[in-house]
Amino acid sequence: MIWQCPHCNLSLGLEGRSWRCANGHTFDQAREGYVNLLPVQQKRSREPGDSPEMLNARRRFLEAGHYAPLADAICAQLMLVREQLQTPVLLDVGCGEGYYDRALVQAGWPEPGVTGVDIAKAGVRLAAKRLAQAQFAVGSSFHLPVADSSVDAILRVFAPGPAEELLRVLKPGGILLDVSPGPDHLWSLKSRLYENPQQHTAPAPVAGFTLESELRCEFPLAIKGGEPVQDFLAMTPFAWKGDAEARRTLEEEPSLNLEADFLLRRYVKPVH
Question: What is the pTM of this model?
Fold first, then answer.
């Protein structure tokens, strides 16, 4: 078991329907199979993370296949790791509703070897419902409730968090696949929402890791129909920050023709 107590950092073991550490801290497992390991002091609001409305919009959008090329690219990178390990353990940091985890399982990653953490309980609940053999927890990416050197690979798609936490939970020689927006991601949408749109800048390399490869994943993004357009705008954070009138105009359009651009960086944790 990879979970550790968020209060004392001791390992957690499953006893019946509860996770318990040696100090007696206990966390009940939800009916859907996930566990809430987010202490009150790590919350910035009553229900932190993406709202249920945003999560459901993202779920519908992703399950319609709009980001399938990105899911395929992620699977191709991580299945290279899978081939080298007997019982691989993956941690999805900021797993949301588990879309990329399901894609990995369909590609051949063993479902019991999939784990995910997200600060949004609604997202973790959705993920756990769809992957009953995987393990999911509500937790912070800044204080991962995960034991030291317990996972073989980490997937991080747009999620914040310190490099120190990623290094701590990853085994020596383990892989980090970090996904961020490419410079042209949704450029035409940003051009309509902002007076002076800016391209995405590439993030700094993740400290402490060795960069193995870098891949651009670019593809056209055609969104047709009223609800898909509204779902896409609901799940896109900067759409809420741009011009309100321009957003309302976009919501009424029957289709959007945009561009998707992602940067996939594969890192390895040094052995020594």
Answer: 0.93
